[in-house]
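Hi there. Long-time user, first ticket. I'm pasting a complex I've been working with (about 263 residues overall). I'd like to know whether the download I got is complete or cut off, because the file seemed smaller than I expected. Thanks.
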Amino acid sequence: MSETATPATSPDRTLRTGPGRVLVAVYAVFALAATARGGYQLATRFEEAPLAYALSLFAGVVYLVAAVGLARAGRTSRTVALVSCGVEMVGVLVVGAASVFLPDVFPDDTVWSNFGGGYLFIPLVLPVLGLWWILRVHRMDRN
Amino acid sequence: MVDWLAMTIQMVSLAMAGWCLVSTFRDQPMVVPHLVGMGILWLLVLGQVVATIVTMVGGDRPAQMAMFVSYLATVALLPPACAVWGFMERSRWGPAVIAFACVILPVLFVRLEQLWSPGV
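Hi, the file is complete. Here it is re-exported in full:
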């Protein structure tokens, strides 16, 4: 019934079970949203705010890598998920701070502007949850 | 876009979200009634998508056509994708996936309606 009860048999699968399953779904939706937004804006209005649009696209790719890293079994994908969640955490903090203190740099919003305020601050909470989950599974494995 | 259908989808979707949240808090996995609910929701969404495509073929198109079509494809694929992903998980987190999807869906419909008739 529950795979999480017997992590010893397949330790690498635990990342996508339990709460991890919701995380993958949320990451997938954000990957789609940010990639589509960045791609569309770069294609139609590149000259208006190239940095902001490129950042949206970059954020989308990071979300996609994180979703795949969380969804796939294996030690390598766990590292991939860990790194992409870390990049995301840094990204949302740096871009969020820059958009507040240096608004001239970002004439148009990105997913990470105002610490993800345009998306109910989910971009700020998501990497925290992601990192927490990966580290928790990692600790469960070692015990 | 059929307004009453969009409204119905949003209501059904939020009701599904509430039901699945209750299941999550009661520590229940996804069961067949959840899947049937998602099936009904998906049929309503597909009805809306088909009606909208018929209208667009008839010549009535939104200004940002590419954006609109990508949102339309997303709402058509979100319910089945999340239903399958949630049903694979045999714990309380299965309904949690559906609850998330069913909260996102009405938001996507708000965006669709904005794109369909901007400024209204």
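A couple of notes from our side: Chain B has one domain: 3-116. The two ends of chain B are 14 Å apart (CA to CA).
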